[in-house]
Amino acid sequence: MNGNNGFIISGFDAEGSSGNAVSYAGDVNKDGFDDLLIGASSANSDDKNNAGKTFVVFGSKEFPANFSLAEANGKNALVLNGVETDGLLGTAVSGGGDINGDGIDDLIVGAPGSLFQDSPGKSYAIFGSRGFGFANPNNGLQGTVQDDIINGTQADDTISGRQGNDKIFGNSGQDWLSGNLNDDYLDGEKGQDILIGGDGNDSLVGGLGNDVLKGDNGNDILTGVDINAINPGIDEIDTLIGGGGSDIFVLGDANNTYYDNGDLDYALITDFNASEDSIQLQGKADDYLLLPFSQANQTGTAIYRKAAQNELIGILQGGANLSLSGSYFRFS
Fold first, then answer.
1. Which residue would you say has higher pLDDT here, 299 or 33?
2. CA neighbor of 40 nearest in space, from 57, 14, 16
3. Contact 286, 292 (CB under 8 A)
4. How many Å apart are CA 204 and CA 136, to the nearest integer?
5. What is the pLDDT of residue 223?
6. Which is nearest to 127 in space by CA: 226, 26, 266?
7. What is the C-alpha separation between 269 and 258, in angstroms, rounded?
8. According to the model, what pLDDT value does residue 232 have?
9. In the beta sheet, which residues pair with residue 176?
10. pLDDT of 140-184, one tens digit each?
11. Are strands 298-305 and 288-295 parallel, antiparallel or unpaired?
């Protein structure tokens, strides 16, 4: 192969298992060329053995006869680093089509974890975007083992805090933020962001835009909105996933009811557990109604703020037999 009739993609690590999974990715950076996905599930990522890596090789008019993954610089290819020891990121890779409806192809990457550990495994849906890659200097940025303060840019950032009690701010763009270990504070700020607390007792704030917040392990506090906005949560639909531990889902504070704009905005809470989680609302129990909710394949309990036309505030997916007098509701 000479680059004209095809080319070879060489691995970067003798034990990385580059090429254990490959897939067509679609055009994830919207440059008019289709892209490729290459998994390297046994690769070490920083100090995490077998965390795995996935490479997005961007399409182009020309390629060398031999392209080495070690030469990935964000313009010719993007590196997605695994964040967990033995996570095996890249065991399965696939183009996801346009799953968020923005007209740009997206990715799905599997990290099943070691067969020798009690691991539930994870899959990451990663949204494509114009300029997707390391043209943004913070895309793929990792913190240290210390307590870090990391600020994203106005582009799309991928930031992992690693160890320490970290504070991570996404700024603008569609950001992917992970606190990883210990007690972290994550704030997506503007844009449609994905926040993952990881281990520890974390505080997650989505900010403006339709965000996905996952507390993961630990006792976490999840707030989907920008609490300093004039009308927090207006025109937003945020997805809140507590994960393990006793989590607090914040849908209001002493000054504001969040998502207070009819049925156009709300928080979708996917895994509320009345035996350990709680929901914070503004006002008092008499200000609200709990009603059954059913739409398409989604059923549960809807939280309405009483008004001339009741205001949808939140949906508890699968929630049933709940009462506003229950100890799992908090009022401020």
1. 33
2. 16
3. no
4. 23
5. 98
6. 26
7. 14
8. 97
9. 158, 194
10. 566 666 787 888 877 777 888 877 898 999 888 888 898 888 899
11. antiparallel
Q: How far apart are CA 247 and CA 279, in angstroms?
A: 9
Integer CA distances (angstroms), 231 to 164, 285, 296, 309, in order: 33, 21, 29, 18
Q: Which positions ≥6 away from 146 have C-beta within 8 Å?
A: 163, 164
Give the tens place of pLDDT for each residue, 175-191: 889 888 889 999 999 99
What Cα–Cα distance (Å) separates residue 113 from each residue in 79, 83, 84, 251?
19, 11, 9, 34
Let me know the angle formed at the C-alpha of 293 by 291 and 297, rounded to the nearest 5 degrees.
170
45 φ, ψ (degrees, to nearest 5): -115, 110
Q: Whole-model pTM?
A: 0.62
State the pairing for strand pair 298-305/122-126.
Answer: unpaired
Instruction: Copy the structure tokens of residue 71.
Output: 């030469």
- Dihedral pair phi/psi, residue 305, rounded to 5°: -85, 130
Can you give the pLDDT at residue 169?
Answer: 92
The confidence score (pLDDT) of residue 313 equals 97
Distances (CA, A) of 167 to 58, 157, 174: 32, 15, 18
Rounded distance between C-alpha atoms, residue 232 and residue 251, angstroms: 9
Using DSSP bridges, classify how beta strands 167-169 and 149-151 pair: parallel, antiparallel or unpaired: parallel
Q: Report pLDDT for 116.
A: 52
Amino acid at 234: I
Q: How far apart are CA 107 and CA 25, in angstroms?
A: 7
Q: State CA 48 to chain mean position distance.
A: 20
Measured distance CA(225)–CA(214) in Å, rounded: 14
What size, in residues, is the chain? 332
CA 310 to CA 319: how far, in whole Å?
A: 20
Domain edges within the chain: 1-133
